[in-house]
Amino acid sequence: MDFIFELPADARGHTGILVFVCRLSKMVRLAAARKSVTAPQTAQLFVDNVFRHHGLPKAFVSDRDPRFVSHFWQHLFRLLGTRLDMSTADHPQTDGQTERVNRVLEDILQSVCAAEPTKWSTLLPQVEFALNHAVHSSTGFTPFYVNGLRHPRTPLTLPPAFNLGGGEANAEDPRGLKGLRTSVKRNLHSFIETG
Predict the structure, then answer these.
(1) Name one GO molecular function term (predicted).
(2) How would you list the strands of the sheet with 2-4, edge to edge?
(3) 106: how many CB neighbours lie within 10 A of its CB?
(4) Measured CA distances, 145 to 50, 104, 116 (Å)
(5) Could you give the CA distance from residue 166 to residue 131 in angstroms, rounded to a whole number?
(6) What does pTM read for this prediction?
(7) How far apart are CA 120 and CA 113, in angstroms?
(8) Burial class (CB in 10 A: 0-12, 13-18, 19+), 104
(9) Of 56, 72, 137, 149, which residue is 20 to 30 A from 36 by alpha carbon distance?
(10) CATH 3.30.420.10 residue ranges in the chain?
(11) Residue 59: which H helix or E strand, with range?
(12) Domain 2-117, CATH
């Protein structure tokens, strides 16, 4: 998880984005935030944007100040009605994956918001969708497909009105669960070997 700040203020005073990236699927979740966002507010953004869809991750990786992360965890687990005792690591781990997403996100927002820079927050759902619908180089699949074994429908993929019947799933289809596991393993091994 990481923040992008110094964006033009939107109508609600947001000047930043809280970015969450799943380390396995590469799924991205985005939430508009104010520069003055507190740890309790960050915890609430996590619950609203990540927890309700995916549950708790096994671990968080962030390059934020360890005291802030500890405060975040305290409020998050208070919101979830449980408890966590944390110890601070000697060396905070940098989240290069999220940093890369941040660069791509900033480029996309500059492109789509050039005419109206203060409208960036209204486009976050579409930008998040686009990021999650793009094939990721390390997995060979889209984050949507890795998470749900399907791609969501878009206006371009809707069937014609006269052809609304569904087809039977093909067990041999490489996009099925068995094929997905095989392909993801092969792609990850290849990605690791090539560096």
Answers:
(1) nucleic acid binding
(2) 2-4, 16-21, 28-33
(3) 14
(4) 17, 20, 32
(5) 27
(6) 0.74
(7) 6
(8) middle
(9) 56
(10) 2-117
(11) none
(12) 3.30.420.10
